[in-house]
Task: structure prediction
Amino acid sequence: MGIRKKRFKEMELEIYDYKNCVIMPGLIDIAVHFQEPSRDIWEGYFQGTKAACAGGVTTVFDMPMVGEPYNCDSQSFEERKKAAEQRLWVDCGFLGCIQGSQYEKLKSLCDAGVFGLVFNYGTQQIYGIEPVSPCNFNELIEKLQITGIDLSLIHILR
Result:
């Protein structure tokens, strides 16, 4: 199925032939792991977003599980945002991290501007992130509903 050239001519639109090139919207990578500010000798915001841009990615979401701080509260979130300032080649959203049952920090973290939350669902620590146990999962969902937090993304580690 395609668009007929005749139809464009009727609408008085210009037609451009880009031969073998692909024209598409920018891609979104929802799971990048930048190492700043704690491990700036590894891939950080500058290198990572420049590579993303070269590959057609226009937006990334930084997941807070490698490279401290883990974005578990508004202070650590601000540290990561500051590390990214003036170093981004593409748009960058930040995900917050839920440590175990530390739900009291959720509201301030979300109010600070995280786009979503990452949590470790299970019984063992992963990447230094304390788990939200299966029995605490319902409590977490209730806390999110009570606080009225509106999130775009929740990522679960298993």
About this structure: The first helix runs from residue 5 to 10. The longest strand covers residues 91-98. The two ends are 42 Å apart (CA to CA). The chain has a mean pLDDT of 79.
